[in-house]
Structures are given as C-alpha cells and as structure tokens.
Amino acid sequence: MHLLSLWQSRVLAGFLLLILQSTLPAQTTVIFGITNTWRYQQTSNLNSPSWQAPVFNDSSWPSGPGLLYSETNAAISPRNTPLTLGRTTYYFRTHFTLTNGVVNAVLTFSNRIDDGAVFYINGNEVQRVRMPLAPTNILYDTLATTTPSGGDATAWEVFGISATNAIIGDNVLAAEVHQTSSNSTDIVFGSALSFAPLSVTRGPYLQCGLSTNVIVRWRTDLATESVVRFGTNLADLSNTVSDPSTTTEHELTLNGLSADTIYFYSIGTASGALAGGDTNTFFLTAPVPGTVKPTRLWVVGDAGTGDTNQMNVRDAYYNFTGTRHTDLWLMLGDNAYDTGTDTEFQEAVFEMYSKMLSKSVLWPTLGNHETAQATNFVNTYPYFNIFTLPTNGVAGGIASGTEHYYSFDYANIHFVCLDSMTASRATNAAMATWLRTDLDSTTNRWLIAFWHHPPYTKGSHNSDTETELKEMRQNYLPILEAAGVDLILSGHSHSYERSVLLDGHYDVSTTLTNRMVLNATSGAETNATGPYTKWTGEQSNQGAVYVVAGSSGKISGGALNHPAMFISLNQLGSMVIDVDGDKLTAKFLRDNGNTNDQFTIVKRDVQILSPQFVTNGFRLSVTNIAAGKTNLLQASTTLSNWVSISTNVVGSNSFTTFDATTNADARFYRVLRFP
Asked: Of 251, 284, 317, which residue constitutes the final position of a domain?
C-alpha cells in the first residue's frame, strides 16, 4: 500500500465506512461504490484509443460488479465477477453522472488493483498506477512496473484528481489493468468514486518572513496548481504569484514587497481562492534589518501535546496580546509529540495554531521528539518537509547550508537557531565554525540564541549530567558570550527556569561563583536596583539571561534548584518578549493569564571615564547616559555585592560624582538606569 497522506487516510476511512453501510461526511458525495458494475474486455488487445472514448460502443462486452478478479487470496474482497487468466491487459468501462460544479472540487478513487492500471475520463488519461510514467505510450503489451505492496491487492489505494477532468452530466470512466508478466497468476480490479469540494487541509502558514519577501505554504487534498493573491488593500488583491505545476504541498515566495507593510492575501488555484482573503489572513513584512522598531515575540517550548494544557497556554497568550500583532514567534523543540510525525504536527501545530500561523512568521528549532530520539544528522525527519528555513544567508547572517541551524535578522535583533539534537556539538565541528563566522558578521544591537537542550536546568532534566546539555554549555556558551549574547532560550525541561545575569559559567552547577554572577537581582524594572544593564561600547562577556521555557504543553517538576536561576516554576506557560530600541522586556505568561516573572535588559552607550584620585576618594565622570532618567552609580570590590554611591536624575547626558572609598585594592563601577 502506498504511504497515504492525511486526506487520503480520511477518504479511505470514508470508503471503508461505505462498505460497512455507514455514512460519509456530509460534504462528500458518493458516486458509486466498490461493487459498481463495469463492462469488461478480456479477449482482445486494444491499442486504438477509441475504446476509451464516450462514443465507443461497448454493448457487446460482458458486465459484472466489482471486484472483478481471478485471485486465490481469500483476504481480497468483495469478489463478485470472475475473470479468466492469460491476458497481459484487461479493459473496463463504466458511466457516472455529475450534477455539481467541478471547479475547485475533487474526484477521489479508492481502488483494489493487481498489478498496474491507467484511468481515463471521457477519453483523456487522468492517472497511472504502477505503470511507466508519461510520456511513455501505454500499449496492450506494456507491463506494470511492479506488483502491489505485499504482492496482492489486499490494501486500498487512493488517489484524487481535479473534478475539472469531468463534465456536468454523463461521463465515461475507462481503465486498463496490466500484469507485471505474461504468466501472472492473478488479476484484480475494482474502484469506488466520490465527489467533494477541494479542501485546504493545512495552512496557510508563513515562513522566512523578511523585509522584501515572505514564503506562503499550504496543503490541499488534491494536487493542484498554486496561486497566492495579495495586496495592501483587502478589496484589491490584484498581485499574484503562481506555479502551474500540480502538488498537494504548496509553497510560493512573494518577492518585491515593501518593508514594514501589511499585506492581505488568499491562497487557491487559478479558478479562485480556497482560503484567506479576509481581515484575519495577512502578514506584516519585517522592517529593514537594523531598524529600531518595537517588536513582539512569542516563545513556546515543548508545546506539542495537542491537549487542553497546550490550548490554555495558547489562549492565555491570545488574550494577553489582543490586537497587538505578534511580529514573529519561536518554537523551542518538541513541537509535536511523541515522534514528530506529520500527523502529530497536524494536530499539535497546524490545528492548534492556525490563527497565528496565517499571520505571524514561525521560526522553529529541532527537539528530540522531532527525531523520535534519533541523533542522525539527516534531513529525512518530517520536520524538514514541514518547514522552510534559511540556508543561504538571505535572512541575515552567514549561510549555514542546512536547515538544522540558521540565523536571521528582525529589526535590530540577530537570531541564531542551533541544533542541539543531531548536529555535532564539538568546538571544531561545522555548526561551531559557522556560528563563529555568523556572529562576527552581525552588527545588530541585540543577540538572541535558541535551541532545545538548556545549558542550565534542574527541572525534568539535569544539565550537570546529560550529554547534550553539558556539551552545549561547555562548547557553545563561550562562543556566544564572547559575541555579547543577551538572551538564550531553550526547552526540554518541562518547567520555567530563568537565570540571573551570568557570564563564564561552563561547568556543573556546584562551580558557580560570585564572579560569574554579574547581577543577582531580579532584573525587573520595579526592583530597587532596576533592570539588567549592558554597555554597547564593549559587547563581549557582559552577561546573558538563560531561560528554560519548556512548559507550554506539560509540566514535569524536578528539583528546580539550579543556583544560576533567579526563579524556577513548575507551571504551564509561554514567554512574551518585547524589544524596543535599547530595552528588552520578557515575561513568563501563565496558562491562567498571570505573569509570574518579568525581567528587563537595558543597553546603553554609557562610559565611565577613568576615575581621578582626589583627597579622600575618587572623582568619576559618567557620559552617554539617558537624559531625564534615573541613573544609579554603583561600586564593588568583587563584581558582586554592589553598593550604591549616588543616584542622579539629570537633564543632560552626563554627570560627575565622588566615591569616598580609599582602602580597596580594586574598585569596579557600573551604572544602572531606571527606564
């Protein structure tokens, strides 16, 4: 039996119900069943195409209901009309009537065939099954290319064609069945036929959204041509992109778009739209890379359960964001449980997030459940057929040459996605080499990295002992921190864990020292010491916040006591991240709508001029601060236990203050800003 797509499986299920005298879905019209009567010819060789035509007189042919057969396998049924062995090719004809419109509709055939067949409607070929491909001419002595799976017609085979191959009224359906050899020991033929509207079974969904182009993908239950109609005015979707080749997996790139612009769109065929063309089907193109623009991200990790937990987390975000558009969203792996099959993705992603997928570009990463726990570095996992991810650097950064890991730019943010599951995590491997080159190339103000296995966690997984987690921490954090990474997002542990501002912690949890903790406070704007502050003049090793956000579909507890974490919660939720100029604010949004954690990172071009020693202390000059904001100058001898020296609200971008301490061997200074 051929591998069936989702729509084929559903149609097949319908025909099996038909055989059991059950009811098909209301939108499907049964034209005839498997016991339909056919006229047949098993005594002559027919090379002339006239036997396929509606005007051909088949009144002298015998007739009988399906299955028509010469077969000893008792599992093949219903066997109704015996045939005689000895022919290479057998010929069959029947009539059917259509009363509905044929535009954007499907004729679906469910068959038992042994060995191969060619189908014709009104004299025109419409399908080949296990026969030489076109343009090979099919003659009476042409052999089928192979036998059915298992050798006999024990399984249903389903295909669909456009109903435009038929006409309103009477139609002639003809089929010729070919053996694989002249001494074949069996022949089986029967076909059931139904009519249904052409349906979009997946999507539309947006991929690789850039400032001048975006990819639109969708799936249909019939192979058709692909058309996207779009425009900035919903009433005028006059721009079109199309592909005349037929497929069920549609993918079109819309080029030449204007940056930071809303476009409405529909998907369909040359005959018309199948979905979209309404106020809920649109995309907002990305701004020109480097542009400062308020940007909202939604982050879900380990979400793909397909249950009420996932729904509640989703709905909490929908209610939270309201009419505020989600500029892009990230999935942190384990997006479809348990083994990442196409069917599991259909339920846990495409049916769960259809509203979001049609208007906000999704950027995913690979988890262990996408590969069914396999670690082979291959592109054969369903994940890679489902998503279209940048490999050639067109989205920003350096070409990776693979969808396993990639980078992209949005506004003034550079994103890096890594594969912690199947790619080599060695420091000299291809992924690490690419990462160094990519990070050297970016000039964006913000750097966010994401992958599945967290470098720090004490949730349902332990970063001290598990190989993927240890190697990502030991081998990749030094590269990213040297490049000034601001935020690292992972899942895998089914919990929410969020670190303080860290730098240089690459060993097990017990080795964390005060020098690695650059700011041990909450980082909340409402906190007395304000948000985490980083200076843009020197990017390297100024600290990053690490988040485990793997509770978007389930929670699994754990010790939740990693010393790097400011907070650890065994709660369902997702992350909302807003980036605006020099400020990044992140929230953990519970499934009940509560916000149980929040932190802010502020970037300033602050410079503390070399302190000048004067009597009883040091005079410090601070420049490039935010005018009109509260600026807090702090000092420390250990890079921890910071002590406030002065608080200044100034109208200009500089101030001078005095540190009276004179007995310290070393004195470090920093400036915090209250937004």
From this structure: 284
CA distances to 160, 286, 433, 434 from 438, in Å: 46, 20, 9, 6
Which tokens in the block code for residue 505?
A: 């912690």
Residues 188 and 210 in one domain: no
Nearest C-alpha neighbor of 138 from the set 189, 70, 86, 91: 91
pLDDT (tens digit per residue) in 392-424: 999 999 999 999 999 999 999 999 999 999 999
Q: Is residue 9 part of a domain?
A: no
Omega into 338 within 30° of 0, i.e. cis? Answer: yes
Looking at the structure, tell me whether residues 164 and 248 fall in a common domain: no
- Give the domain range for residue 55: 26-197
Place of tokens 């609200």: 649
The C-alpha atoms of residue 634 and residue 386 are separated, in whole angstroms, by 51
In a shared domain, residues 436 and 521: yes
Comparing CA positions, the residue from 300, 302, 672 lying closest to residue 522 is 672
Q: CB–CB of 163/99 below 8 Å?
A: no
CATH of the domain at 58: 2.60.120.260
Beta strand 487-490 with 446-450 is: parallel
- Residue 8 within any structural domain of the chain: no
Residue 215, in any domain of the structure: yes
Q: What's the total number of domains in the chain?
A: 4
Cβ-count burial of 443 within 10 angstroms (0-12 exposed, 13-18 middle, 19+ buried)? Answer: exposed
Phi-psi region of 195 (alpha: psi -120 to 50; beta: other; left: phi over 0): beta
Pick from 629, 661, 668: nearest CA to 647: 629
Close Cβ partners of 24 (under 8 Å, ≥ 6 residues apart): 14, 17, 18, 30, 194
pLDDT tens figures, 558-603: 999 999 999 999 999 999 999 999 999 999 999 999 999 999 999 8
Contact between 446 and 414 (Cβ < 8 Å): yes
Q: What are 84-123's pLDDT values in tens digits?
A: 999 999 999 999 999 878 888 889 999 999 999 999 999 9
- Measured CA to CA, the distance from residue 206 to residue 223 in angstroms comes to 20
Q: Minimal CA–CA distance to 127: which of 142, 146, 140, 110? A: 110
CB atoms within 10 A of CB 327: 23
Is residue 242 located within the same domain as residue 328?
no
Same domain, residue pair 629 and 565: no
Task: Give me the residue label for tokens 């650059």.
Answer: 518
Q: Which of 197, 214, 232 is the last residue of a domain?
A: 197
Q: What is the CA radius of gyration of the chain?
A: 32
164-203 CB burial, b ≥16 within 10 A, e <16: ebbeeeebbbbbbbbbbeeebebbbbbbbbbbbbbbbbbb
End-to-end CA distance of the chain: 64
Q: What is the mean pLDDT of residues 260-264?
A: 98
8 A C-beta contact, residue 483 and residue 415: no
One-letter identity of residue 426 = A
Residues 337 and 387 in one domain: yes
Is 164 in contact with 103 (CB distance < 8 Å)?
yes
